Amino acid sequence: MKWLSLATATTTVLMIPTTVQAQIFDYDRLEFLETRPLSVNGTLFFFGDQNQNEGYVGYSNLDRNAPDAGHIGFRGDLNSRYYATGREHSPDPTGATRSATLKSLTSFPNLMNYLNNNNIPLGNIGYGFGQKEGFSVTQALNLGGDILGQDWFGRQGSRVEEFIYASNPEAVEYYLLYQNTKIINLGYSDIFVAAADDNLGSIFGNPNVFFTNPTVPSKFAGLDEITSGIADAFLQDVAAGGGKIQQVSEDILDPEDFSVSINQGFEIFNFSFPIEIRIVSTPEPSLTVALILIGSSGIIGGIRQNQKK
Fold first, then answer.
1. Confidence class of residue 1 from pLDDT cuts 50, 70 and 90?
2. Closest alpha carbon to 274 in 10, 15, 11, 6
3. Beta bridge partners of 5
4. What is the DSSP letter of 9?
5. Is the Cβ–Cβ distance between 4 and 18 less than 8 Å?
6. CB-based contacts of 239: which residues, under 8 Å, 6+ apart?
7. What is the pLDDT of residue 22?
8. Which of 85, 187, 221, 279 has the smallest count of CB within 10 Å of its CB?
9. Could you tell me the maximum CA-CA distance found in the chain, to the nearest angstrom?
10. Lowest-pLDDT range, 74-78, 108-112, 258-262?
11. How far from 81 is each of 56, 59, 172, 297, CA to CA, in Å?
12. If DSSP codes are grouped into helix, strand and coil, which group holds residue 252?
């Protein structure tokens, strides 16, 4: 993906992608995953460029007999990546400090005003995910037992495979940064992945998407005035827009967005990726129950009327 800058780096500006990311994947193609991206009330758009020491990594044990070697699915003879984490948590240390950098935002008025009023460039805001300090590369998000029908899904004749990457919520975190300081904990969720093999015979030119469940973000403790102000502005916008966020990445892989390395006994795929932090809202449990009861009352009433007839 290429980016077009509309102003100098010393000013808080919008960065607009020169390729459109909308509707690159039809979610009706999913047969097994139930989670879906929700309606959007505000968006932070980040991009992690693996050529700039950002992005995320997928890695598997080089020993094909190891339980974390990754399965070979229905779409070809390449084993899937068993682990996934941000570039800064890779088994191949490169000095990376984040997974992606903020490029644009929409419907985050408090955050935008705070950044502008304090002359903070968008590029100072980063996104990251992966193992917390003290946890190893084998405690990253992973495919668990790597069992068909439980951890990954697919079938003969389908070009789409679906995956669930999960970990101990105490071991993994998703976060926003100001420079190198974590300011927002985005909350834990499994990652739901869909990979399509539409460009047969190549790993490139195919849609790859992943997304999380909605989560409630919170502020990290111990922030100074500036970092606390950024975090508060973000949380105010989230509260006004629905109270939760959802992470969504939709991309088509290009050769320039991919590289391979080997370290610590792992084959590591480095990926560039776009990632959106979206403000979303979900029905309150009480409202959901009320709607169910109302619907049930209508059904029961109709049955009773028919019985009387």
1. very low
2. 15
3. 15
4. T
5. yes
6. none
7. 53
8. 221
9. 76
10. 74-78
11. 12, 5, 18, 48
12. strand
What type of residue sits at position 27? Y
Instruction: Considering only CA atoms, give the Rg of the chain.
Output: 21
Residue 215, CB-side half-sphere exposure with 13 Å CA sphere: 21
pLDDT in tens, 163-211: 999 999 999 999 999 999 999 999 999 999 999 988 877 889 989 999 9
CA 248 → CA 90, 171, 265, 286, distances in Å? 21, 21, 30, 27
Within a 10 A sphere around the Cβ of 47, how many other Cβ atoms?
23
Strand duo 83-86 + 100-106: pairing = unpaired
Q: What is the pLDDT of residue 284?
A: 62
Strands (E), 54-190: 56-61, 83-86, 100-106, 125-131, 141-142, 152-153, 160-165, 172-178, 181-185
Give the CA distances from residue 114 to residues 98, 122, 178, 202, 234, in Å, rounded to whole numbers and listed in that order.
22, 11, 13, 45, 9
Residue 92 DSSP one-character state: S
Tell me the pTM: 0.85
Q: Which residue has the higher pLDDT, 215 or 284?
A: 215
Q: pLDDT by residue (tens digit) across 21-40?
A: 456 899 999 999 999 999 99
